[in-house]
Write a structure and sequence with these properties.
The chain is of the alpha/beta class and 154 residues long. The chain has a single domain, classed as Beta-carbonic Anhydrase, Chain A (3-Layer(aba) Sandwich). It contains 5 helices and 5 strands, in the order αβαβαβααββ.
């Protein structure tokens, strides 16, 4: 898409009415990396799942806030946390970024080990007292080399 008018026209063509509550009663937390397409990975269509994306697919306070709303207002009962190989957040050094930009008013959330961060995020979701997830929390690593989605143990 090269212009705003192209985006507006495409939105009109792609529009279809879908319910506010996801049909699968599931939310997905994942990275905003353009190589990660959660709808394709999960074979989901419009209205099937709610998707929350940020740099790294990190379970932040805003992710928790959004999931509390999803859980209590839209009937979401399960969460799939999907992180991926070759993530730009692996090894991201906050101090190096701050040396270039100056002190940041927030934590960038870089991490050293994908599996450790995935486990931390899953534990954070499972232990949140405001979430009532009868469908549970599943954690996955999406492999960008072969397209494999591999479930990780808690």
């Amino acid at each position: 898409m090269s212009s705003s008018s192209d985006l507006v026209n495409q939105a009109k063509v792609a529009y279809q009415e879908v319910p506010a509550a996801p049909r699968r009663h599931t939310a997905v937390v994942t990275c905003f990396d353009a190589r990660v397409d959660p709808w394709r990975i999960l074979e989901a269509g419009p209205g099937d799942v709610q998707v929350f994306r940020n740099a790294g697919g990190i379970v932040t306070e805003d992710v928790i806030r959004s999931l509390v709303i999803s859980n209590h207002k839209f009937g979401v009962t399960g969460v799939n946390l999907i992180m991926h190989t070759d993530c730009g957040m692996i090894g991201l050094d906050q101090s190096a970024v701050e040396a270039e930009l100056g002190r940041l008013p927030f934590d960038l959330g870089g991490f050293d080990d994908l599996t450790t961060e995935l486990r931390r995020g899953g534990e954070r979701l499972r232990s949140e007292p405001l979430l009532h997830l009868s469908g549970g929390v599943a954690t996955y690593i999406y492999d960008l080399r072969d397209g494999g989605l591999r479930r990780q143990s808690a």
